[in-house]
Amino acid sequence: MADQLFWDGDLRLITNLHCTPRQDDKPTFGLTEVLGPKSQITFAIISSFVVSVPWIYQFFEPRTPVILVAQPDSSGQASIKKILPNWVATLPFLRNGDGCQHTKFMLIFYETGRLRVVISTANLIAYEWGDIENAVWLQDIPPCLQPSNHDPKITDDFPSIMQRVLSAVNVRDVLTNMLTQHRNLPLQSIDDLHSKWDWSKIKVKLIPSIAGKHEGWPRVVQSGHPRLMKALRDLGLQTGTGRAAKELVIEYQGSSIGNYSTQWLNEFYYSARGESAEDWLCEAKARRFNLPWPPIKILLPECTHGQGRSTPFSVPIFFKASSSAASVKGNGKSNAEPITTSDQKTDREPEDNPAGVDATPARQRNLLDGRMLGHTISRRLLGEDYRDRGLIQFWTYDYNVNYELGILFPLYDEQEVERVSCFKRPPRKYDLGEDRPWIHEESTVSMEA
Questions:
Q1: Residue 69 in contact with residue 171, Cβ under 8 Å?
Q2: Which pLDDT band, with edges at 50, 70 and 90, does 99 fall under?
């Protein structure tokens, strides 16, 4: 199956050593299937927060040029490093060394001219592709018969956002550097993504978070949870406001569990409804600080789920929080059993099917709802909105600490929801007295790859 093509895209869980075959019989991806025949790869751009270079290197031919986007050192300074013959690492800027480069994506170029785009929840390290449940979305993009001209006014389609992400994580500079030794790369400029490949069959929406301050509403909606809001609106999934609003329930499953406040979760929830953060910021600050927990179920990895490995990103303080946070906790039990889940997935379900949403495409009128994959939900990754008052007017800005990248895609019926779900639904309520969270510092399973 390593040479199978996915012109319409596909989302699958990663093959896990502890549950093969899976109890739910869902198809899976292994890394060799994601990459395809390595002899046909002419160039690759790969990104990961944690990476084992010796391990990932074996999946490519030594002659293949590769750009690796990785985590910078404690200084946070952007840099370019040659790490292997034909391999160059680029480390993006992080102010004062705070935050992380958390994107996990691949752009794989083949000798036929085809491009494969991959967004995953797995770092490029062995145990995340065998011991922990992760997920991968990928799609093959054909080359254009003739280079196309891009309308510069279009800034939020898939290739435009991908180009912006590549620039943010310093790929533009390293690509220019690499072209001095590899003059025939299929990608001569980041801007070629738009003009040389046909993106017409892409249905997913990219949701990036780009580290830094984004000022002014046009820039705010390009990153973090305001970008999620914009993408949901584009899909016709805005829930509405006031009495006409549909109640929305969100299920979030992953291993990167942060410290959540009611204020920030409500801020995220507002965007996840497809409602404008500008309206949210118009609410009195005292009211925003005193709202109850929103209807979000954060599904926690749990020790009794069996084999697999823990991850270092689950924060004990939230697991062990008092019963005040109990309403947002659920048990993230894998459909595969018996393994620990790591995928960053968000299911978004309104109380009523939004058949009355004003959306023009015929099939979109039957949307059940949407899912976001690959993007961790946390303040540092999705950002926090602010509004300051100047001499004449208010202005809005968003601040992201980390780099992150996910996708949002529509679901049209309950069967599609179940097909992409990696946890048992409906999730069981988390029992603070009986359930024991899987926390890295307390795990007896080694993290050695």
A1: yes
A2: confident
